[in-house]
Structures are given as C-alpha cells and as structure tokens.
Predict the structure.
Amino acid sequence: TNFPSATFLPKLHMLEDHIVPWMKRWRIGCGCMGEQGAESLHASFNNTERAYKNMRDRVDRLRVVLQNHHFKILPFTQSLEPPLLKKRKAKEDKETL
C-alpha cells in the first residue's frame, strides 16, 4: 500500500519527525525498540529465569528476574538498593520484651 500520495515511506517520516524527539526525551536509542532488541531481551530473560528456576515461589522468582534485568541495564541502581536487614535471633527478641 502507498502512503497517501507520498513518494517517501512512512518509515522515513518516523525517522525525520519522531525518532529524534523521542530519543531526546527518553535518552535512549531506538535499537531496543525494534524486533532484534526485543528478541535479545527475551533471550536474556530466559537465561536469567533458568538461573533462578530453583525458586518455588513464582512471584519471588519474577521479582528477582526483573531486578536482575534492571541491574544489567542500569548498573548504577544497585547502589540505590537498601541494605538487607539482619534477622534477629529468638533470644534477642525475648530480651527486648
């Protein structure tokens, strides 16, 4: 199908008028938005999920997979994660009561 009375492709219109503002707004290239980028993400998720397949709780496993993915694409966010709290022993709990 022809784009209405045009001699250029709609893809060219997207490149000229929409891609640059989108890249400036989101500060990321458009490579991740294409089919190849999506397939790459799919493969990455599958590999990560295999690494955590021993986790029985599906919600916990999904949380860890998403967190792992987030840390891969934005490594600086690891420093923003709050440290784990140490579990108190039962003896300490009784003393505080």
Q: What stands out?
A: The two ends are 77 Å apart (CA to CA). The mean pLDDT is 77. DSSP finds four helices and no strands in the chain. The helical segments are 10-26, 35-51, 58-73, 90-96.
